[in-house]
Amino acid sequence: MIKKLLLLQLFVLVTLCANAQVPTMSSEAMKQMKVENLSDDQVRQVVAEMKKNKMSLDQTDSYAQQKGIPASEVQKLKQRIVALNLDKELTASGNGDNAAGQRADTRTVDEETDSRAEPMTQAELQAQQRRRRIFGAELFSNKNLSFEPNLRMATPGNYQLATGDEIMIDVYGYSEVQHRLKVTPEGYIRIPNLGPVYVNGLSMDEAKERITKQLSTIYSGIRSGNTFVSISLGNIRSIKVLLIGEVSAPATYTLPSLASVANALYVSGGPTENGSFRNIQVIRDGKVVATFDLYSFLSSGDMSNNVVLRDQDIVRVNPYSTRVELAGQVKRPAIFEAKEGETLQSILDFAGGYTDIAYRDNISVQRINNKEREVLTVPASEIGSFKLKSGDRFYVDSILNTYTNRVTISGAVHHPGDYALTQGMTLADLIRKADGVREEAALNRGLIRRLQFDRSPAYVAFDVEKVLNGAQAHALQREDSVFIFNKADLRESYQVKISGEVNKGGYFPYADSMHLEDLILLAGGLRDAASLQHVEISRRVRNATYSGSDTALAIIRQFDITSDLRTDAAGFVLQPFDEVTIRRSPIYNEQGNVYLDGEVLYPGLYTINSKTERISDVLRRAGGLRAGAYPEGAVLLRKTFVNEGDSLLLSSKLDIFYNSQADTTAVSKLENTIAKKEQLLGIQMDKILASPGSKYDLLLEEGDIIRIPKRLQTVQLFGEIYFPKKVRFDKNFSFRDYVRGAGGFTSSGLKRKSYVVYANGEVKSTKRVLFFNSYPKVKPGAEIYIPTKKEGRGLSGSEVVGLSTGLASLALVIITILDRIK
């Protein structure tokens, strides 16, 4: 019954934790909690609550204190978390109470700056940046590093037992028994059937020896060697350690009993800007028992002085005594702390030594004296004995970016590059080292770029051919650069061009002895439309004597070719920059199509069979018009250039035409049929049918679209009428009848500029006969447009005053003149 009650209480506790609420269970109930009775899901809920609060595994003690879980169950809870691999889900640092064993601040400087309620001052920012540069500070600001103690390793033999530790005793052999015993506050473990055994202060090895000796009194097999005893550490105790001095977060921390000085420093955030990394003291019972030097670990990986802490130990971080800065060409430039007696060589060792380009003869020093600063120079021979003073700033310079014995050759040689200058070396020797000049080298002149005494450049010219023959000898100097030029680099890039009816026209590199046939082959051959006659070659006029009467701009030659590229220009060789033109055959024509749509017997694409074919001819080939066709409304669309500023009527008419089509499937199949480059061309189909071949019967062109609509029965009205609409066509109605049927003209309508657009695209405007308007006739499918009057602007007040004044002045002048005449 009690067990069930405990499980119920624990379930309530975990549920409350998951909801981030403080449990309301009594302290007596909390003291009876047993972690071994928790299910895996309940442990996961506890981890989720800790993760929500950004707590680490080391902060389980703090979590237990907040929730009232007994201290004896904390280690068991940690083991359950580790066994379920849930420790990885917990963050490396927490945000709880410092006294519960977590780091006070594990954020980086940037994160800390972002999370501050107020921006950092300039002094605070400089202090943070300076701390970053201190050698060793990165261990405490890098969140990828962790000094947490490994709780899953085998217990060290020198581990000292104390109150709160749990000892696991396994007796096996002739006798088998297991015990899990906790060290009492008095320092004893109570073995059943044996009595108390004092183990407080003993190491694991000493405790094993004492416990085995006591067990041998009740298990005779131990003395005879038939029974064995295995002793290990179960749950470890927690200890409280006080960190004081120049530490980022001084406080009392609860740590596992396996924690060392490095663990304590890590959870406290490490030394401050003024804290020492080399003089960290462990004080036990009022005495300094160890001094931790972090540089031993950083420089050589030595952790021998990283002692294991005990309960009530004090870790004191003292202020630094001597710090110097090493910058420049060293592998790890930083601010270093020095101990008494260490020299500049020690700081160089901490920095990893020189870089490859460091100047090692001396190191410059800036030193702060009592009243002012001074500059010192430390020769390489004194680095090992140079004494340090706090505040020294050492700088290692880099070597000069010059060479003591370098000469360079480039250009038309087989192996250009840098070469070593030897005693008495000449230009010919350097060319031989470069394996000689290449065939395309310009032999008449080369250059040597030489640095003079003041480092200004100068050029020395030489004859390459004479140098190679030994007729000239040029002694080389340090940093000389020799240039052997390439003939091709000294002239414009030679090209030839071919255009016209070839498959791949364009520019091609020129080569000696290139012929017309070669260039045609390089261009992929001739097109089907190419003419074999009058192939034209144009050539630049060059190397000619100037004459004032000479007006020639180019040399033109024409040749005929055959289909197998044989020409009558067999001896004609192309020259650089020649341009070849292959023209189109005058009798070659590609098929041209027109599209016939609407009320014809056989609509579709038709090929133009001659240059004289007209609209009536293609209508005859299409079988003529259907019975319901309306010839007067036929339209012709012809490809042309239409600018954005052209008539808006054209765009509107095209849109209306295409939007009114009942079946546009066939039209959409024709490429580029609906495009701005097609213009409506008015035709009179009734006159074309009546008089084939007349002036109304236009010649066909490629891309023409002819459509004959069905008989139209409506008239559309636009513009300044009260009710623009589409109405039924009535042959007895006049222009004004249609307007009256749409409500009449508005007050802003410009009647005398009205016009009618007929179904075939023809436009007729209103005529003025004396004082009357003669409106155009309306036909089926017509569109009536009433434009808008331009708005007139009245006179402003100042204009009225000005006009009145002018008229009054004019009247006065006239009266004066009349008086004088009298």
Task: Provide a brief overview of the structure.
With 822 residues, the chain is α+β, with helices and mostly antiparallel strands. The protein contains 22 helices and 37 strands.
Counting helices, strands and paired strands, the structural category is alpha+beta
Question: What is the CATH first-level class name of the largest domain?
Answer: Alpha Beta
CATH superfamily of the largest domain: Outer membrane lipoprotein wza domain like
**Tally of separate domains:** 8
Total helical segments: 22
CATH topology of the largest domain: Outer membrane lipoprotein wza fold like
Instruction: Provide the helix percentage.
Output: 10-25%
The unreliable regions are: 1-31, 92-117, 644-650, 656-676
Cα separation of the termini: 145 Å
Beta-strand fraction estimate: 15-25%
Question: Any idea what the CATH architecture of the largest domain is?
Answer: Roll
Strand order of the largest sheet: 7-6-10-8-9
The coarse silhouette is extended
Largest sheet: 5 strands, mixed
Q: C-alpha Rg, in Å?
A: 53 Å
> What is the overall pLDDT average?
80
DSSP summary, beta strand count: 37
Family: Belongs to the BexD/CtrA/VexA family.
Domain SLBB: 240-317, 406-445
Region (Disordered): 92-126
Domain Polysaccharide export protein N-terminal: 155-219
